[in-house]
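User:
I would dearly like some help making sense of a protein record. Take your time, and here it is.
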Amino acid sequence: MLTKSSRFNKLESLSKIASKKKTYPKGFRRWLREVYYKNKINQTYELISRIRIANFLFNQESENGKRAIFRRWEATQERAEPPHLKIARLYHRTSKRAADKIYDTGRFTSNIDTSFGTEIYFSNKPSGTISGYGPSLVAVDIPEKYTHIDDEFPDGEKHYRVSAADLLRFGRLVPRSELPDKEVASDTRGEQLSLFSSLATGALEITKFSSKYARKLSDILDIKSNFKDADFWIWRKHNPGKPIREYHPEAIGIKIREEYLDQLDPRYLYYIFEYYNMSKFWEQYEVGTTIKSIRVSDVQNLPLSFLNPGS
C-alpha cells in the first residue's frame, strides 16, 4: 500500500517526465519544413513563419507518427554522400573596401535578408551584367548543391544566390592570384551605377518623351497590392522595397502599361528596383516602429527620374 509520501513522490516524478519535452536535431527541424511539410507551407513566407508552421504541424502528429517521421529522416542521413560533388566557381563584384575585407576575414556579409535567410549574390562569369555591382572581383568554389539560380541572361550569364551560412561552411575563397582580373573600374559611385544606367536606356527615353504627359511612376506603371498579374512584386513590409518574382498578397505589384512596353523592359525595371533596395533607398519611406513597411502611394508618387538611377 502506497503511503501519502510515496504517492506524492511518484506523482512528482511522473509530472517531471510529462513536462520533459523531446528535443530534435536542427537538421531534422529543417528537413520538416523544407522537405516533409514542403507542400503544406507557403515557401514565400518569412523563415520564422515557416519554422513555426512546421513545428505546429509536427506537434499535431501522434507519438507513433512522430517516431515514424523521425526514423524516415534518420534513413535519409544514413545515405552516403556522392564521392565527388560537382564544384561551381562563382564570381562576386563589390567595392574595393568590401573585397579587401572579404579576403582579410574570409567572410561575406550582406544587407540582403530574404525568406531564405541572409544571402550573397554571384555570377557564373567574372564580367558582364555583374560588373555593375562594383569594380573589385571576388570568387568562391562551392558545391553546386548549395547554389540557387536567381536569373539567366541571353548571353549565357547566370546569377546565383548562396546563403551566408553555406558559404562559411562549404565555400572556398579563390586566391586573388587565380582571378582573371583584379579591377574593372575605379571605385566610384558613378561607375557602380553604369550597369543600371545602361539597363535604363529605355526608361530614360520615357523620362524625356513623356515629361509633358507623365510626371510620376503611376502614370506609366500599374502599382497596387494584391496584384496577381504584375510583372514582378516588391515587399511592402519586413524587407520593404525588395523585388521578388513570385506573387505574394503582402507584396506590391508592378506592371508596365501596354503602351510603354516598346520603351521599357520589365526585366530592366526589376533590376532598377533591385538597385534601389541594395542602396537602402526605401528607408526614407519606411513607417512603423516594430514592423517597417512602405505605402503603395509612396511608390506610385515617385518621380520618373527614379527610372534613371544615375540621375
